[in-house]
Structures are given as C-alpha cells and as structure tokens.
Amino acid sequence: MATLSDIGLAAAINILTAFAFFIAFAILRIQPVNDRVYFPKWYIKGLRSNPLSTGAFVGKFVNLDFRSYVNFLNWMPAALQMPEPELIDHAGLDSAVYLRIYLIGLKIFVPIAFLAFSILVPVNWTNSTLERSNLTYSDLDKLSISNIPRGSRRFWTHLVMAYVFTFWTCNVLKTEYEIVAKMRLHFLASEKRRPDQFTVLVRNVPPDPDESVSELVEHFFLVNHPSDYLTYQVVYNANELSNLVNKKKKMKNWLDYYQIKYSRNQSRKPSLKVFIVDDILLKSPTGFLGLFGNRVDAIDHYTSEIEKLSREISLERDKIVNNPKSIMPAAFVSFKTRWGAAVCSQTQQSRNPTVWLTEWAPEPRDVYWDNLAIPFVSLTLRRLVIAVAFFFLAFFFMIPIAFVQSLANIEGIEKALPFLKTIIEKKVVKSFIQGFLPGIALKIFLIFLPSILMLMSKFEGFISLSSLERRSATRYYIFQFINVFLGSIITGTAFQQLDNFIHQSATQIPKTVGVSIPMKATFFITYIMVDGWAGVAGEILRLKPLIIYHLKNFFMVKTEKDRKEAMDPGTLGFNTGEPQIQLYFLLGLVYAVVSPILLPFIIVFFALAYVVYRHQIINVYNQEYESAAAFWPDVHGRIIVAVIVSQLLLMGLLSTKEAAQSTPLLITLPVLTIWFHMFCKGRYEPAFVRYPLQEAMMKDTLERAREPNLNLKSFLQNAYIHPVFKGEDDSDSDEAPEEFEKEPDLVPTKRQSRRNTPLPSKHSGSASSSMREAQDYPLL
Amino acid sequence: MATLSDIGLAAAINILTAFAFFIAFAILRIQPVNDRVYFPKWYIKGLRSNPLSTGAFVGKFVNLDFRSYVNFLNWMPAALQMPEPELIDHAGLDSAVYLRIYLIGLKIFVPIAFLAFSILVPVNWTNSTLERSNLTYSDLDKLSISNIPRGSRRFWTHLVMAYVFTFWTCNVLKTEYEIVAKMRLHFLASEKRRPDQFTVLVRNVPPDPDESVSELVEHFFLVNHPSDYLTYQVVYNANELSNLVNKKKKMKNWLDYYQIKYSRNQSRKPSLKVFIVDDILLKSPTGFLGLFGNRVDAIDHYTSEIEKLSREISLERDKIVNNPKSIMPAAFVSFKTRWGAAVCSQTQQSRNPTVWLTEWAPEPRDVYWDNLAIPFVSLTLRRLVIAVAFFFLAFFFMIPIAFVQSLANIEGIEKALPFLKTIIEKKVVKSFIQGFLPGIALKIFLIFLPSILMLMSKFEGFISLSSLERRSATRYYIFQFINVFLGSIITGTAFQQLDNFIHQSATQIPKTVGVSIPMKATFFITYIMVDGWAGVAGEILRLKPLIIYHLKNFFMVKTEKDRKEAMDPGTLGFNTGEPQIQLYFLLGLVYAVVSPILLPFIIVFFALAYVVYRHQIINVYNQEYESAAAFWPDVHGRIIVAVIVSQLLLMGLLSTKEAAQSTPLLITLPVLTIWFHMFCKGRYEPAFVRYPLQEAMMKDTLERAREPNLNLKSFLQNAYIHPVFKGEDDSDSDEAPEEFEKEPDLVPTKRQSRRNTPLPSKHSGSASSSMREAQDYPLL
User: Where are the transmembrane segments (chains A, B) (predicted)?
Assistant: First the structure.
C-alpha cells in the first residue's frame, strides 16, 4: 500500500519529467531550423514561408536571441489566446470540438472534486475503521470509502453524492451536446460552397445487361429526381494506378537522394547494385542484398526507371478510362441544389433496399476510395467476421503473444538462427534478451494495435476516413476498457476474466469488480501520471517527426517544395487519442465517490492536455478531413457508458458493505441515465446524421439570390475524381481530366428491346420516358 | 409423469370438445337468423343483404333444408378455396399476411417433425438409461433426450439436428420475408389512389407568437417544399365533442329501446325514474337506483335529452372551429405527388429535430386522434414511465393480485358489506366464494391484461391504431414468455424467477431452465390442446357476438340500418392473437430437439387455426385499418427470438449432460442466427418502414398519364377530418365541412416586424419570400 508520501514522490518525479520535456520543447521550438517541425500548420496555410530568423547566417539555424529563452512557458498563454471562432476558422470544427472534450473533463471534474473534498473526504476521514482493523493501510485509504464501517449510515452521503455527480455530469453533457450541435449546424450553414453539399454517394448500382453503370446512373436519377439532378461522376477502380504512382514517388525520392549526394560530393558518381530475380527488379542501396548484382550509375538508373513508370502510368490511366470494367458500381451524384442532395441522401431510392444505396458524400479528401465497391451481402458478412475477430482480439490476444514469447527465448533463437549463437551466448546480450524480449512482444503488439483496429475497420467497408477513425476509436475504447481498466482491477488475462464473468451471477460481477476498486486507487494515480502527464508532455516535443524531418531535410530536400513535403504535421489521431481521454473519464467517474483523491490528478491531466493540444492544433496538426464534429455522439455515448459503469460498480461495492437498503435507489440511477441517453439521442443526434431540409433550402435560396448565374456544373464536374487522376505534381496527368468532362448531358437508352422507340425526352416528368422506366423496372 | 395413454385420453377429450364446437357451429351458421353473426363481412361489403332463406316464414329464422346438415364440415374446403390474390382483394393484405404466420408454422414444423421422428426418436428410444435408473418414467420420456446417458456420443445427433433445424427455420423465414415484402410493395403499388399516399403527418409544430398553427404550416411547407406542397389539414382537439356525440348515440339507443317496447305493448307507456343529485342527471331504467326519483315518460325524456345534446354538440362544434386554441400543434400536410410525400416523410425538416416531426400519415381510419398533440419531451418521459411500469407489471403482477385475494375472503366481504352476511353464511355460497374467488381475481386480471397493455401503448403516444396494436403485441409476448413459458418451466412467480436469475451466473440460467424442459413436455402438450385446439374451435363458434347480436336484435333494432350496426364482425385482434401464435413457435422450436413428441400437437394446432382463421377472415372479421402488413418485421423478429432461446436452452441442457465438447459448436449457432437477423433487417425491413422514391415516382407518372386533369386538392381536402366532424349519421353535421374548405391558398404573413413589406410571391423559389423566411428562422 502506497502512502501519501510515496504518491507525492511519484508525482514529483513525473512533474519534473514533464518540466524537462517542456524545457526541451521551449528550447527546440525557437530554433529556426526546427521551425517547420513545430509550426507546420502555418506553412501549410501559407501564412509563413520562412522561419523568423535573426539575420546572420548562423541565425538561420540557431536562435541567438537569448531573451526568448527566458520565458520558456510563454507558449501556454499564447495557445489559450486564440478565441474559439478563430480556432474553427484556422483549424476546422473537428479540432475545435475535439478540444471541448478536455474542457468537458474540467467542467465535470472540477465541481465534482470540490464537492467530494468538502463533503466526502471529511465523512470518510472521521472514521476509524481502518485503525481498528488489523489491515495495513495508508493515509490515502483513510480518505476513501474503505474507511467507513460496514452497514454505516454514512453511506447515505455516498449515495446522495452519486446522485449529485450523475446529475451534474448529465447536465454538463446535455449542455455540451446542445452547444456542439449548434456549432455543427452553424458551421455547415456558414461554410462556403463545397462539392459535398451537393453530392450524394450512390453505392451498389445494380448490374444491368443492357446499360453501363454511367448510363444507368444517369437514367435512374433523371427519372427519379427530375427537377434536381445535375450530374454524376463514376468511380474508377484505380488501386493499381495508385500503386504505380506511389512507386514512382518513391523512385523520385531515391533519385533526389542520389542527386544531392552527387552534388555534395562531385568527385564520386553514386552507384548502386542491381540484380534480376524472376523479373522482379530488386534495388538495394544499403543492406546485405546490396552485396551482389551489377553496379550501375544510380542517377541514370532511377531516371530511366521513372521514365518507364511514367509510361506505365499513362498506359494504365488509358486502360482505366477506356475499359468499362474498371468502373465500379458506385457513383457520386450531384444535384442542382443542396435541397436535392439532402432529399436523395435521406430517402430510399429503390424497392430493393440493398441497391441504389445513397448516403451523404464525404468530403473529397475524406473518401476512402478502396471500399466504394463492396456489395451489400459482402458488407454484412464482413461485419460478422470482424465482430467475431474483434471479440477474439479483445479477449484472447494474450494467447498468440504468449506463444511468441515462448518462442522468443534463447533456445528458440539459437535453433532458428544458429549463426547468431556466439553473440547471444554473451552474458549481457543473454540477460537482455531474457529480460526484455517477452515484454517487447507485448509492447510491439500494443504499438500495432491501432493499426490492426484500423485495418479491421477498413475491411469492414467504411467509405470515409472519418468513419474509419470513429469505428477504430470505438474498438480501441472497448479494448482499453477490458484490458486496461478491468484488467488492472481484477488481475488475470482478459480471457480469465471472461471465464470468471460468465460463471458469475449478474449481481456478483459488479461486486467482484467493485470490491477491488478502492485498492487500486494508487495504481491508477501512477498510471495517470505516467501515461497521462508524461504522455501529454511528450506529445508536444514531437521527437519522432523532429528526427524524421531532419533526416529527410539532409538527404532528400532539393527545393522548397520538397522541404514542404518533408514536413509531417500529423493529425489529431482521433482513433487513438479519444479512447485514451475516455479512459480518464471512466477513472474519474468511477473513483469520484470511492476515492476522491484520484480527482486532482485527473484534473491536472485534463488541464495540461487542453493547453498542449490547443497549442498543437494551432501550430502543428493538419487535419486530413473535416467531418464537422460528426464524432460527438460517440464521445457523448462513451461518457454515458462511463457513468453507468461507475453506478453499477458503486452498487456492487455498497452491497458488499452491507448497505443493502440503498440498492433500490442505486438501481434507479442507471435507469435514469439510460433514459437520459435516449432523450439526448432523439434530441441531438439527428443533427449529426441528417441534414435538415430547412437549412438546405435556406442556403440554396441565399446562394441563388447572390449568384444567380453560377455555373454549378463546372464547379462539381471534377470534384470527386480519384486523387491519382488529379495528381498536380504529375506532369503527365494533365490530359486525363478532360476525359471526364465529355459526359453527354443525355444518355440514350441502349436497351435492346427499346432500340426502336424514339429518344426519350430530357425531363422524365413527361409520360413517355417514365412509362418506359416503369416498364424497365417491372412491378414484381 | 403422464404415460402415452394419459396423453391419448386427454387428446381424445380435446378432439371431442373441438368436434362438439364444430358441430354446434355447423348447425348455428346455417340458420338464417344467425346469418349476420357468421357472415357479417358479406353484409359489410354489400354483397349480401338478406339471409338465403327457404321461402316460408319459419324458414326466415330456422333452416329447414335438412340436406345442409349432412356435410357439417363443408365450410373447411370452402374456406381454403379462395385464392390468395382474391383474399387480399376481399379482406386486405393485413389479414392475408396474418394467415401466412400459420402457414409458416406448418412450413417450419412439418419437415422438422418428419426429420425428428425419423432420426431423433430412434436415437433416443434405443437407449436404456431410464430403464436402468431408479426414476419413474413413462414411454413418453423414452422418446425424449432424457433417455440418452450422460456424456454419450449420441448427443452429436442432437447437435447436428439443432443446426439442421436452425438452418431450415432461417431458410423459411428468409423466403417468407422476401415474399411478404414483395406482397407489400405490390399491394402498395397496385392500390388505388388513397389520401395517405399523398399525406404526411406533421407533429410538434413549434409555437409562434405571430402566426397561428395553420399559417405556420402553410408557410413552412410552401418555403421548404415549394414544388410539391399542395394543402394541409389542421388537427382539432375534438375529444370533448366526440364525448358528446357518443353520449347522444347512447341516448338514441335507449330511445329506440323504449320505442320498441311501446310499439310491442301499446297499453302501457314506458316510464323511468329520474332524480337530480348535484346537477348530475342520473338515469337508471333498471337497477336499485331506479327505486327513487320522479317517474317520467321515457320516450319524451330521451327525446328532449337528445335535442338538448344536439344543441350542445352544435355549440361545441362552433367553438372548436372558431377557437384557435382548439387547434393542436399538428397537421396533415398533403403533396401534389406521392414523390413529394415520400420525400417529406423520410427527411428531417428543421434543424431542431424535435419540432416539425414528419412521418408517413396513417390511413384516415387508422389514426388515433387523441395522441396527435403530445410534445417530444413528454413522449420520452412517457416512454420511460411505461417501460418501468411494464417491468413491474411483468414481474410483480402477482403482488396486487395476492393482495386482492387476501381481501376477497369471507371475512373481508362480511366486514365491507355487512348486509350480505346472511347470504354468504350459507354453506354452498361460502364454499363457492372460498374456492373460486382467488382464482377469479387472477382470471379477471388476465382477461383485462390486453386492455391494460393497450392502455399503456396509448399512454405512450402512438398515433395509429396499427402501431398501438403492434406495441401491445410485443408487450403481451414478453409477458407470456416470462409468465407462461418460463413460469411453467420453473415453478414460482415471475418475481422469484427474476430474483433467481440475477443471482445466477450467465451460464447457469440456461442450465436451470434447460434441465427442466424435458420434464414439462406433457404439461405443454396439454396446454396446446386446451388453449390451442379448443381455443381455435371456440373461436369459430363466436358465442359472445352471437348472444349480444340477438339481444340487440330483440331490444333495439328498428330498421335494417340498426340491424347492420348490431352486427359485431370484430377484428383479427393482432395484439392478442399474434403473441399466442408466437408462443407455439417458441414451444415447437424449444422442444424440436428435446422432445419431438410435442411437434405433432403443434402441427395440428397450426393446421386447424389456419383453416378456422381463413374462414373467419373471409366471412366474419372486418379490419379497422389496413397497414399493408407493417407488422411482419415484428413477427419475424419474435420467431428469431424463439430460435435463439431454443439454442441457448439446448446449450444449457447439453452442458448438464456432460456433453461439454459440443459447447463451442452450440455457441456459434446463436451468433449466426443473430447475424442472419441483422442481414434480414437490412435487406427487407426498409420495405416496411420507408416508401422508395422509385415506386412513388412510377405511380405518379402513371397517374399523370392516365388522368392529366385530376383535381387532387378536392380529393384530399377533407380526407383527414376528425371522424366526429364527418358524422354521416348526424343530421346537424352537414354545415361543418364547409368550414374546412375555406382555407386560403396563400396566407399572408402576420409577423409584426414585416407587416410593411409587400405580400410574398406565391412560390418561395423567388428570393424575396425565402429571404424573409431565412430571416424568420435566424441562423443560431
């Protein structure tokens, strides 16, 4: 049992660590040479093109103005100064709302901590249960619920406090949901014209023997949305092309590398060894494969390779555009008005609900192109597979790791790679391997976990990056809940817990977990300091991007444009960041009644994280997409889950404390909370899922009044082209877009049976064309 | 333990009872005097106006054609002859699809019974576990899974059979879902023009200080659906009026009664005693209150009363039409096209998702008028209240009944009503009260249960009779599942079960229930025969409507029209009938693997019920509404629940039989079944919830081609008027409808701030009016 002074020491160490990070950051960030690592956002926005240097040559790399070293924390007030509307303008709504999660943390926990310390702590402290018992205990435990004797009337305080805390949390949640919903609607309403406002993504276009996908889409929407339909953009299967383009980009990087190497040392022409294995060209400038093969001139080699690839790319491009099979059964359909798009995205188009699936198109940069063509049956199957896979991942992930650990012992390595025997047998190496390898296997798994979860979401078939991240975040939260939260409270692997739980009664589970909670308070305090405080402080240092940027800058940067590309601003990383915050909500709410001593640590985390991430959002991160805070219902839902978990665990804990008369009162709490959640869902969630017609109509009307002669078609024509077709940095891609502008306004039907009928009139409102359509889709 | 011969005897008794019912029915139905009881449907449809009599005077009442008595079962083939499309035409899609539930029962259980008897029964029978054990057992038990020794390899047969049965059931369910979805779409597509196709119900019209509800609705839809909006119909709060009208109808019945009495016995003018208590006129022609008061002429009295009420009604009617406060914040909004209505019903209108709630309007006769004005917050609160109330009803309903039973003993009655003491003290009466009263309290509760559940649904705020019935059916099913199914398997009240269950582990519950299942087979066989067979046979006799019709016919019928009203065809009663069928599905699926002997009894039930209900639907029932089989997703979902319950219980049973190696294989079954359900939900359910735009557009286009000059507005104008305003049988209601036709085509805005702007142009597409609207609904 840790004493107060133990915790104090740990806190001091962690505070010092955090300070060390901050000082390092303060020094590194004002060096002009690091400017692009710590302020990339400003470069990307075009507001800064050169570091603010002190003039002299050295001043271009090192900051010589010693005054700027004095106030090493002055970035903090600077980060807080920017008002929210400006922040939304600067970094987007997603980022601004993301920061509100930390603010909610403060709004919930500061009053709760105040109440807990002024009411609960005295109530707990003024007992002597622990003193009279034979248990070892610390001052910390005297502050917690453990110090209350069994069946004491003092538990009524905790019960009332549980109500107060729940009420307060729900109150904050409701207010925030309302604010965020308004912010989202305001953001959508005040946004400038964007292609996704007019566009709907249509998936599962049914196959048709007589007509191509393009013709089918054109016909279908001309008939069923006659007054609003404008144009469409088919989706090409350009995965192969995008591979080639990526390959070319890599080659170019190597070319740049060798050209710089040559320009620095003109005496020696760089060369590399090339050898041919089964028609696959393996190039290895470094590494042990570089030992064999023919030595060639590196610059010449890459130049010719790039030329070859350019030719391949243009061939592939032609193939995609001309081959109807490369058109996927999906399309981006654009409408003349936002109203038309809102209508189409919210309604069911066809009598078969698995074809002509329409949904609001994500932003062009938010689209995840690979998943656009997955058919409905496959989607449901994928969902089943991933659900089962995730279940096993969450509960049984220790099994393969234990297997790897058992392999990764000295004997296993010696067997597999006998030539390493001499090195391994050295004592230092041996003890290192024996001590660290098992831990490393687990650590590597945990590092790769977000990527694994992201892969799962991709396999599941989501079509936008934002939804991929949201789903991954949900899974990551569940994983953390099971393996970090429950796993720390009840020792044993997740599988053992599962086994315990299904053999325990529904009332026993909260008891089992609830009883262990007070004992784990010190563990979680340490966890918050190491993972939370130090983690946040480390975040601001950006050690990894710093190193990579300088390596790239040294080896590959030729022009300013290259330097711009070498910057890696990174993103907020919703899929990993948000579940981590949620864990702190969970801890805070669970311990609020049980051991209030935890709360100050959580408050420090939220405050620190708020400042740091606000700084990062202003100066560093560059969001890949803008979902207009579409993730808020998830955030809200997970905090609600935390509230309910805390209530159930308190119920379990109190029932072991023989305060059984409180059970009925405690049962009503989760019921009320669930009802509150349902109320919020009905009241606010639609704002995050649907686009109200009133809003759409209003924006349409305003626009029509302001710009009566707007040519919307040309604005929308190329908005949803696969990024490889756009390729601004690719000189030979300029021809491509024209291909997409040639779509005829009207596609004559190609149906065999109807070849001899006259061409349909343009507007399907007339009887003839719709009658034809009616016949084409017979009644049963 | 019942033996085979016991079951045989019970079956014989029940078969005889059923036959007795059938013979009674066969005799009663061919009497011309009962014609309106057994063939009301034909009278309502206007296909029959007089019983087919044999000519003579007596023949008008009694059938003298003795040949027709011979083939007393000839109604059965007659009921089966009508083909399904004709049945849909004759009785509506709801009824036709309702019959398919019985057919599904046959489709599922006939092949399963065949397989079970050819494979499972021999496997069970050829063991000797029971013979060797000391337990008493019957031949019936030898056919069941109880006869297999612990840990036997023969359990693999049951496992495989569980897979086969699940697969077969899912297969039938999928096929049926597909067929019913197609039937529904075809029905909707081939329907003739109906007001609800063009109409959307708008609820929660937000209050506005400057404009009335009518103006607000008109403005909102003119602006947001400019091209399709046609007209609207506000909803009046006519509950008071409808009370008055009902009162008048009752008075009229009494007047008729006395007039007939007088015409039969002209010597004595009928009179009744009237006395005044606190301004309330108590009239009691019979009963003990009739002993006091002034004797007046009955016919004069009722005539004057009716006149008085007529005046009140016309006053109230004027009040409603002229008082803006009697307009509820809801409206039926009609569109020019089905497409427009489909769009409006499927989209969100306002940025605040709790106002301007639109949904597809129910049929005019399906509307439940009282609930149209419940605000959103109240709705969510009501849902919470009802959820909690139903929980207590389902688990604790025995408590008040036990309380009533404890009151309703001899001493309690003597105390409350001392003057009955002399009667009660008689021995016969005493033993009757002591023996029956406690049972009667429970029986009365069970009789009133459907009404209680219906009241709950009404309180919850559903706005159509069909949705009220669907919700009541769900609750009734849950109640039956807990109290009949579980309650019979594990003895004890529902509350005791609940208490057991929450103290048992998740794996223990299926074990506890599963183990008791084989032992209860004989009980459920008896239950099926008494409740199922005899119940169905009793249904066709229609004893209650028969008696009531003849009473009414004798006392109150003056004209043919009165006689028509005296007919009570009744309805299918989805809210009680469907949950009962579902109980048989549950029993059949649970016992299919465990005790296949139950299956033939269930098959007989389904076959019998199918024939009987087909007859009743053709000849008797008159549906109050037509929901186009909107209940099918519920039916499907409950059968899926039954499948999953059967799988879990089998898992529990097998785990006690030490066939643990089968557990992983058994766990995958519910997972697959749930996935199958999700697949079906995505694939077919939208057809029951939304109206595809393609369909709407097709029907619109066809109609426009056929009837280019249709005046839709006049067709829709009075479709959604509260039934009391229509009142065809009320002479003084003729003036009212005109009031509703005077709605101006355009409502000038009344907003104070904009009085001085010119009148808005008619189409909101123009900038001025929409800009105004945009200002009226400011951005935040």
Answer: 6-28, 101-125, 384-408, 436-455, 476-495, 583-613
